[in-house]
Every structure is written in structure tokens, then in C-alpha cells.
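Quick one: sequence plus pyridoxal-5'-phosphate SMILES, need C-alpha cells.
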Amino acid sequence: MFDVTKYRDETKGVNNVLHFNNAGASLPPDIVHNTMVQHLEREREIGGYEAKAEAAQRLDQFYPEVAKLIGAKPAEIAFIENATRAWDMAFYSLPLKAGDEIITIEAEYASNYLAYLQAAKHKGVIIKVAPNDASGQVDVAALEKLITKHTKLISITHVPSQGGLINPAAEVGKIAKAHGILYLLDACQSVGQLKIDVNEIGCDMLSATGRKFLRGPRGTGFLYVREELANRLEPVFIDLHTAEWQDGNIYELAKGAIRFENWECFFAGKLGLIEAAKYANSIGSQNIANQNAMLSDYLRKSLAKINGVHLADLGVNKSAIVTFYKDGISPELCHAKLRAQNINVSVSPSSYARLDLGSRKIDSLIRSSIHYYNTEEEIETFCKAVTEL
Ligand SMILES: Cc1ncc(COP(=O)(O)O)c(C=O)c1O
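Reply:
Sure thing.
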């Protein structure tokens, strides 16, 4: 039995809002909030460095707890302030040069694509975009055909920000492995929502955020880098947390993924993220994924019955992100009208996904994103509100 009542009792926010904006930021469980507040209180009472020293053993739990969540080793995890910077630390640390090719996808996250454009402009790297198949997910066979001896990176988004698609990350991983090409996975929307195992997926690097489906604090995230790769990659930035200045001209990098971290960080947030990872681990990623599949299926079916509502999700396997638009009313106005009723969704504009929404001639979409602590009753209330818009 999936104990929704318990999870709701442990989430203060469900008493105030109908929250279908988990792809923006989930409502955190109370333990995440309380842990952060307690640490901030200690910083106020005894000083920031002293509070950190006091919490040292608990802070060390970050690495095994997050590693457990994605089937990694503790030495393969770095705490970074958000998914974008985590991804950047991996991407900008790769020794790419003119003529090297990157393969990505149509549904790639905008900030990642901007980084490819920058690498193309400044380094002469070549961007290749694998097309979608008929269902709208990446066409894995077509992706493989793009590989040449110059391909240095396959870099894709697992669950896009702007739609309910789940890309076949493990199938892409098999291809990357077969051709000996590095594979970077943006798992920002999938960690905490789906069962993620880096070994099953076969990625070399993976970035994720704290605040979305993992239900952690804002301003937190993490990076996974396969241990052997972490130990041979020179991070784009280093500091005295990640490298030791041994002599006048000599420095030695820290071992493992820690070398991608920052010296200064949001320790209250790190403690909060440990609690979020523990919370997810205690429920079990597969249980969470099953509940999300059941709820999002119910939401899609219910929305499909509403006059004038058009579902916009692509792909074979669908995520807990449910996107749609309604005839005669803009997504922006829908968002505002729902917010006025304490119903939270967000809007995905095409500027966030030029290749995806742009090619489908969609200006923007309503993004409703459920999570395991939502209920069927909430879905019914939501659909009633959408009908009345
Ligand atoms: C697919 C995807 N990747 C990366 C990000 C960036 O995450 P963050 O805001 O934590 O940097 C987002 C945020 O919406 C996202 O949806």
C-alpha cells in the first residue's frame, strides 16, 4: 500500500495549495524544511563555520545518500548549487576542440543547448541534433547514424522540461558504450520522479537538481561523474576545496567527483538535500515511479475529456509532466486564473525549447506536473477548474 496520507501529513504545503508544479519546485517534506531552519538557527547562534563543524558527520552523509538514490558510489557525487552549474561543470571540463562533434536531441534543455552554441562559437565544436521518431522521442537508430570518428560526446535530456516525454536514456547509453563515446545525461526532471540507475543507463556524467521531484531545497543540486572519469578530468574551475596548492607551482586535484564542487556552499541546503534523498530512498524510487505513472495517466485521461483541451506530450513512455493548452485562452492567462484559486502550474514558453516547441509551432504550454503526494481528488478538482476556465 502506498501511504499517501502519511506523505501528505508530512507536507505542510498540501494544506494551502493544490500543487501541480513539481517540475518547477515540489513542496518539500517538513523534515527538509525543519532541517534547514535548524541549521540556519545554529549558524545564527554559534557562527557559520562552527555550525558546519558541528554538523560535519551529518554533512558527510550527503555522498552515500545521494549515491544510493542513483546506484552510484559516494566518490562519484559532487554537491553543486543547481543542475545547470552541475551540468556546466561536466560539460565545460571536457577537452573539446575544433571539429569535435556533440550529438544532442530536439528536446534538449535550453541552457544546455546554449552551452553547445557557445562551444561552437568559441571552440569550433560541431553540434548534431538527432531527430525524433514518430512518437516524438529521440530516434535512437538515427542518433547512432550521426556518430563519426569525430564524435566526442552524446549529451541528452532524459525528461524534458517542456513536455511529458521520457527519452530512452538506457538505449542511448548502449550506443554510447558500443562506440566508446562519453555520455552526459541531464536528469534534472527525472531524479526523484523515476527510478534512476546510472549503471543501467550507462551514462558517464549526470546532473540533477534538489528542488524538483527530489523535493529538496532551492539552490541545491548534484553532479555524478563515473569514478575513473572523475579522476582524469581537469575541472574547468578549481579552488582550495577541490585542489591542494602543494608548492609554488604545483597543485593536486582532489580524488573523485568532489573536484567539481565549490569551496563555499549552502550548508543548510546540503543538509536539507540529504533529508530529501533519505526521504525518497525510504519510499523507494520504483514505488514513487509507479505512483507517478498511475496519477499522471489519470490526469491525462481526465484532461483529454475536457472540451477544447489539447494534450501536447510526446513519446512512448510518459512522465509526471503533463502539458496541454485550451482553445480560446492563453496558457499565461490559464496559469494566472488557476493561481488565483491556489492551484499551481507553470507555463513552458517556446524560448525554453526552440527545437521542440518551435518546430511544433507552439508558443507556450500549460505545464501541470504531479508527484506521488498528490491525489486523485486533487486531479478531479484541477480538471473541474480547467473546465471552468
Ligand atoms: C531538463 C532540465 N534541465 C536542467 C534544468 C535546470 O535546473 P536548475 O534550475 O536547477 O539549474 C531544468 C530546470 O527547469 C530542467 O527542466
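The chain has a mean pLDDT of 97. Residues 285-304 form the longest helix (20 residues).
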